[in-house]
Amino acid sequence: MTKKIVFDFAGVLFRWHPETMLRRELPHRATDATSAAHWKREIFQGYEGDWGEFDRGTIEVPHLVARIARRTGLQAAEVQTVVDRVPLELQPIAETVQWLGQLRAEGRPLYFLSNMPEPYAAHLERENAFVGWFERGVFSARVRHIKPERAIFELAARHFDAAPSDLVFMDDHAPNVEVARSLGWNAFVFRDATQARAELAESGWLTR
Fold it and tell me: Does the domain made of 4-15+91-202 have the CATH classification 3.40.50.1000?
Protein backbone atom coordinates (compact mmCIF):
# COMPACT_ATOMS: atom_id res chain seq x y z
CA MET A 1 0.00 0.00 0.00
CA THR A 2 1.22 3.51 -0.82
CA LYS A 3 2.38 5.35 2.27
CA LYS A 4 0.83 8.72 3.05
CA ILE A 5 3.58 11.30 3.46
CA VAL A 6 3.05 13.87 6.21
CA PHE A 7 5.06 17.11 6.33
CA ASP A 8 5.67 19.45 9.23
CA PHE A 9 5.75 23.12 8.15
CA ALA A 10 8.12 25.34 10.16
CA GLY A 11 11.68 24.12 9.68
CA VAL A 12 10.65 21.68 6.95
CA LEU A 13 8.66 23.48 4.25
CA PHE A 14 9.18 26.97 5.65
CA ARG A 15 12.27 28.69 7.03
CA TRP A 16 12.25 29.07 10.80
CA HIS A 17 15.36 30.62 12.37
CA PRO A 18 14.01 32.55 15.37
CA GLU A 19 17.42 33.74 16.56
CA THR A 20 18.10 35.31 13.17
CA MET A 21 14.64 36.86 13.16
CA LEU A 22 15.15 38.35 16.61
CA ARG A 23 18.52 39.84 15.66
CA ARG A 24 16.84 41.41 12.66
CA GLU A 25 13.67 42.67 14.37
CA LEU A 26 14.98 43.48 17.87
CA PRO A 27 18.62 44.41 17.19
CA HIS A 28 18.87 46.48 20.37
CA ARG A 29 17.96 43.38 22.41
CA ALA A 30 19.34 40.49 20.38
CA THR A 31 22.79 41.96 19.85
CA ASP A 32 24.70 38.71 19.37
CA ALA A 33 24.18 34.94 19.27
CA THR A 34 24.04 34.62 23.06
CA SER A 35 21.44 37.33 23.60
CA ALA A 36 19.41 36.11 20.60
CA ALA A 37 19.29 32.62 22.11
CA HIS A 38 18.22 34.14 25.44
CA TRP A 39 15.32 36.06 23.90
CA LYS A 40 14.28 33.05 21.88
CA ARG A 41 13.93 31.09 25.13
CA GLU A 42 12.14 33.95 26.86
CA ILE A 43 9.65 34.71 24.09
CA PHE A 44 8.90 31.26 22.67
CA GLN A 45 9.46 29.17 25.84
CA GLY A 46 10.31 26.08 23.79
CA TYR A 47 6.85 26.49 22.19
CA GLU A 48 5.22 25.76 25.51
CA GLY A 49 3.74 28.27 27.96
CA ASP A 50 2.30 31.39 26.37
CA TRP A 51 3.43 30.55 22.86
CA GLY A 52 2.20 26.99 23.22
CA GLU A 53 -1.27 28.34 24.00
CA PHE A 54 -1.04 30.54 20.91
CA ASP A 55 -0.16 27.45 18.85
CA ARG A 56 -3.09 25.66 20.49
CA GLY A 57 -5.48 28.43 19.53
CA THR A 58 -6.59 29.19 23.07
CA ILE A 59 -5.25 32.76 23.26
CA GLU A 60 -5.27 35.51 20.65
CA VAL A 61 -2.59 38.03 19.74
CA PRO A 62 -3.47 40.84 22.20
CA HIS A 63 -3.44 38.44 25.15
CA LEU A 64 -0.24 36.79 23.92
CA VAL A 65 1.54 40.13 23.63
CA ALA A 66 0.43 41.25 27.09
CA ARG A 67 1.45 37.98 28.72
CA ILE A 68 4.89 37.86 27.11
CA ALA A 69 5.56 41.53 27.91
CA ARG A 70 4.55 41.05 31.53
CA ARG A 71 6.62 37.89 31.91
CA THR A 72 9.80 39.04 30.13
CA GLY A 73 9.96 42.76 30.81
CA LEU A 74 9.96 43.54 27.09
CA GLN A 75 7.87 46.46 25.93
CA ALA A 76 4.51 45.45 24.46
CA ALA A 77 5.51 47.15 21.21
CA GLU A 78 8.63 44.99 21.01
CA VAL A 79 6.64 41.81 21.50
CA GLN A 80 4.08 42.98 18.96
CA THR A 81 6.88 43.50 16.45
CA VAL A 82 8.06 39.91 16.89
CA VAL A 83 4.53 38.50 16.59
CA ASP A 84 3.86 40.58 13.48
CA ARG A 85 7.12 39.61 11.79
CA VAL A 86 6.85 35.83 12.17
CA PRO A 87 5.06 35.47 8.78
CA LEU A 88 8.00 37.23 7.11
CA GLU A 89 10.33 34.64 8.64
CA LEU A 90 8.20 31.74 7.41
CA GLN A 91 9.49 31.82 3.84
CA PRO A 92 9.25 28.69 1.64
CA ILE A 93 12.34 26.51 1.54
CA ALA A 94 12.83 26.16 -2.22
CA GLU A 95 14.48 22.72 -2.13
CA THR A 96 11.68 21.20 -0.04
CA VAL A 97 8.95 22.81 -2.15
CA GLN A 98 10.58 21.45 -5.30
CA TRP A 99 10.66 17.95 -3.80
CA LEU A 100 7.04 18.32 -2.69
CA GLY A 101 6.14 19.10 -6.29
CA GLN A 102 7.97 16.01 -7.50
CA LEU A 103 6.11 13.82 -5.01
CA ARG A 104 2.85 15.36 -6.13
CA ALA A 105 3.70 14.71 -9.79
CA GLU A 106 4.32 11.06 -8.89
CA GLY A 107 0.84 10.87 -7.40
CA ARG A 108 2.02 10.46 -3.80
CA PRO A 109 -0.62 11.16 -1.14
CA LEU A 110 0.55 14.30 0.69
CA TYR A 111 -0.60 15.59 4.08
CA PHE A 112 0.64 18.02 6.73
CA LEU A 113 0.68 18.24 10.51
CA SER A 114 1.87 21.57 11.88
CA ASN A 115 1.89 23.51 15.12
CA MET A 116 0.65 26.84 13.82
CA PRO A 117 -1.39 29.69 15.32
CA GLU A 118 -4.45 30.60 13.28
CA PRO A 119 -3.19 33.98 11.95
CA TYR A 120 -0.06 32.33 10.56
CA ALA A 121 -1.94 29.31 9.21
CA ALA A 122 -4.29 31.60 7.29
CA HIS A 123 -1.32 33.61 5.99
CA LEU A 124 0.53 30.52 4.74
CA GLU A 125 -2.59 29.22 2.98
CA ARG A 126 -3.23 32.59 1.36
CA GLU A 127 0.33 33.32 0.24
CA ASN A 128 1.57 29.88 -0.88
CA ALA A 129 -0.30 28.06 -3.62
CA PHE A 130 1.56 24.82 -2.91
CA VAL A 131 -0.28 24.45 0.40
CA GLY A 132 -3.18 23.47 -1.83
CA TRP A 133 -1.20 20.46 -3.07
CA PHE A 134 -1.92 18.62 0.17
CA GLU A 135 -4.93 16.34 0.26
CA ARG A 136 -5.55 17.17 3.91
CA GLY A 137 -3.77 18.79 6.78
CA VAL A 138 -3.97 19.61 10.47
CA PHE A 139 -3.04 22.97 11.98
CA SER A 140 -2.79 22.86 15.76
CA ALA A 141 -4.82 26.01 16.41
CA ARG A 142 -7.79 24.58 14.53
CA VAL A 143 -7.98 21.39 16.59
CA ARG A 144 -6.88 22.78 19.99
CA HIS A 145 -4.03 20.28 20.34
CA ILE A 146 -0.29 20.71 19.79
CA LYS A 147 2.63 18.44 19.07
CA PRO A 148 4.07 16.50 20.83
CA GLU A 149 0.76 15.63 22.50
CA ARG A 150 -0.45 12.17 21.57
CA ALA A 151 -3.95 13.50 20.93
CA ILE A 152 -2.97 15.52 17.88
CA PHE A 153 -1.33 12.50 16.23
CA GLU A 154 -4.34 10.33 16.95
CA LEU A 155 -6.65 13.00 15.56
CA ALA A 156 -4.48 13.46 12.48
CA ALA A 157 -4.47 9.73 11.68
CA ARG A 158 -8.27 9.74 11.80
CA HIS A 159 -8.44 12.88 9.68
CA PHE A 160 -6.09 11.35 7.12
CA ASP A 161 -8.15 8.15 7.15
CA ALA A 162 -5.02 6.08 7.70
CA ALA A 163 -3.59 3.50 10.04
CA PRO A 164 -0.46 4.84 11.77
CA SER A 165 1.67 2.26 9.96
CA ASP A 166 0.59 3.77 6.63
CA LEU A 167 1.84 7.24 7.56
CA VAL A 168 5.37 8.59 7.07
CA PHE A 169 5.99 11.74 9.11
CA MET A 170 8.92 14.14 8.95
CA ASP A 171 9.53 16.89 11.50
CA ASP A 172 12.61 18.89 12.48
CA HIS A 173 11.82 18.54 16.21
CA ALA A 174 12.91 15.18 17.64
CA PRO A 175 10.31 14.97 20.46
CA ASN A 176 7.52 15.13 17.88
CA VAL A 177 9.12 12.31 15.93
CA GLU A 178 9.50 10.20 19.07
CA VAL A 179 5.80 10.50 19.97
CA ALA A 180 4.77 9.70 16.41
CA ARG A 181 6.91 6.56 16.48
CA SER A 182 5.47 5.53 19.85
CA LEU A 183 2.03 5.59 18.22
CA GLY A 184 3.10 3.39 15.32
CA TRP A 185 3.83 6.06 12.72
CA ASN A 186 6.87 5.79 10.47
CA ALA A 187 8.75 8.97 11.38
CA PHE A 188 12.16 10.59 11.16
CA VAL A 189 13.88 13.87 11.96
CA PHE A 190 14.05 16.19 8.95
CA ARG A 191 17.31 18.00 8.25
CA ASP A 192 16.91 18.93 4.59
CA ALA A 193 15.15 17.68 1.47
CA THR A 194 18.16 15.72 0.22
CA GLN A 195 18.43 13.78 3.48
CA ALA A 196 14.67 13.25 3.68
CA ARG A 197 14.43 12.00 0.11
CA ALA A 198 17.24 9.53 0.77
CA GLU A 199 15.68 8.32 4.02
CA LEU A 200 12.32 7.72 2.37
CA ALA A 201 13.96 5.75 -0.43
CA GLU A 202 16.29 3.73 1.81
CA SER A 203 13.44 2.79 4.15
CA GLY A 204 11.29 1.58 1.27
CA TRP A 205 8.52 4.04 2.15
CA LEU A 206 8.18 5.18 -1.45
CA THR A 207 7.40 1.68 -2.67
CA ARG A 208 3.89 1.42 -4.03
Answer: yes
Instruction: State pLDDT tens for residues 51-78.
Output: 999 999 999 999 999 999 999 999 999 9
- Least Cα distance to 149 among 15, 16, 48 occurs for 48
Contact 51, 45 (CB under 8 A): yes
C-alpha to C-alpha distances, 161 to 3, 31, 106, 188, nearest whole angstrom: 12, 48, 21, 21
Q: How far is CA 21 from CA 3, 39, 190, in A?
A: 36, 11, 21
Checking if the pLDDT of 1 tops 80, the result is no
Q: Which residues lie closer than 8 Å to 125 by C-beta, 6 or more apart?
A: 131, 132
Give the residue extent of every domain in the chain: 4-15+91-202, 18-88
